[in-house]
Amino acid sequence: MKHTISVLVNNRPGVLARTAGLFARRGFNIDSLAVSTTQDPDVSRMTIVVEGPDAVLEQISKQLYKLMDVIKVLDHQDEAVVNRELALIKVDASPAVRGEIMQTVSIFRANIVDVSDRTFTIEVTGSADKVDALTGLLSKYGIREMMRTGRIVLSRGAPTA
Amino acid sequence: MKHTISVLVNNRPGVLARTAGLFARRGFNIDSLAVSTTQDPDVSRMTIVVEGPDAVLEQISKQLYKLMDVIKVLDHQDEAVVNRELALIKVDASPAVRGEIMQTVSIFRANIVDVSDRTFTIEVTGSADKVDALTGLLSKYGIREMMRTGRIVLSRGAPTA
């Protein structure tokens, strides 16, 4: 089962390596990871998407708490969340298929953010499923390059704290 | 100077920990990091934003190449790129300020993706500057929670390869 885990950490060198090391030692491959600052510049937030048995991931969450500079660990498994990711996709776009690609982009409420003689670069935001669906449709034209941010989540509703 | 470095790696456990460890040993703090799959499921791409002297970061790029499972390292320093990040921002939104916040959101072409009695959750996509500007404007209402994906980049134009 895929888990999305948020880890709030002090913004210091080494904490990322320690966290990644914990997953690696268990042989878990991280599906996606996003690390960035929060509203507090001293605190960073990691969002980790990882697949594995519930019991083992629960154990890892507990071990994360013991790492230096880890402030808070949240497994969003049973929670209503807003989840989003962003992708940039560079796709072959010969004149003959440009109209077709632009229609698809518009249906997905995506944007074309760069154009060359032979390619479009498309920006899309949404759930992983939505990004997968768009890349699936675009793959027949030929995807040259692609970069996804990995998932970020915020719990729905007002904070309880 | 801030550098944006892309690292293409084999999608295997441990490669993230090794890469993060390399930066940590040099005492570099990573500003943001995005790791996700590419169009090839066996290959992941990391986008690392890090600040430091040009010469030292050049050295680190060379050392990254020597790590197991690292395929390609690109410093986007002198290149024209499309750069984007995504943020989710949960902001206090009492009835008295809702109209005001909605205007700001609309000017930034951002979206309100969740609403509660007391809060809005806003999704925004753009350069780091744009995200900073919006969070700056929203901070007066009270930011409850915030998550950014970290920057991703694709080079402009058609691939040369």
What is the CATH topology of the largest domain in chain A?
Answer: Alpha-Beta Plaits
- The CATH C-level class name of the largest domain in chain A: Alpha Beta
**Which geometry of chain A do the CA atoms define?**
elongated
What integer is the average pLDDT of chain A?
A: 91
Biggest sheet features of chain A: 5 strands, antiparallel
N- and C-termini, Cα separation of chain A? 29 Å
Total count of helical runs of at least 4 residues of chain A = 4
Q: Secondary-structure element sequence of chain A? A: EHEEHEEHEEHEE
Strand element count of chain A: 9
- How many structural domains does the protein architecture of chain A include? 2
Largest interface: A-B, 60 and 60 residues
Question: How would you explain this protein's 3D organization?
Answer:
By secondary structure, chain A is α+β, with helices and mostly antiparallel strands. The first copy, chain A, folds into two domains: 2-75, Alpha-Beta Plaits; 82-153, ACT-like. Chain A, domain 2 (Alpha-Beta Plaits). Chain A contains four helices and nine strands; from the N terminus they run E-H-E-E-H-E-E-H-E-E-H-E-E. Chain A has helices at residues 15-25, 54-66, 95-107, 128-138; strands spanning 2-10, 30-37, 43-51, 70-75, 81-92, 111-115, 119-126, 143-148, 152-155. In chain A, strands 5, 6, 7, 8 and 9 form a five-stranded antiparallel sheet that branches. Chain A has a four-stranded antiparallel sheet with strand order 2-3-1-4, with helices on one face. Chain A is elongated and about 55 Å long. Chain A starts with a strand and ends in a 6-residue tail after the last strand. Chains A and B meet through helix 1, strand 2, strand 5, strand 7 and strand 8 of A and helix 1, strand 2, strand 5, strand 7 and strand 8 of B. Strand 2 of chain A pairs antiparallel with strand 2 (30-37) of chain B.
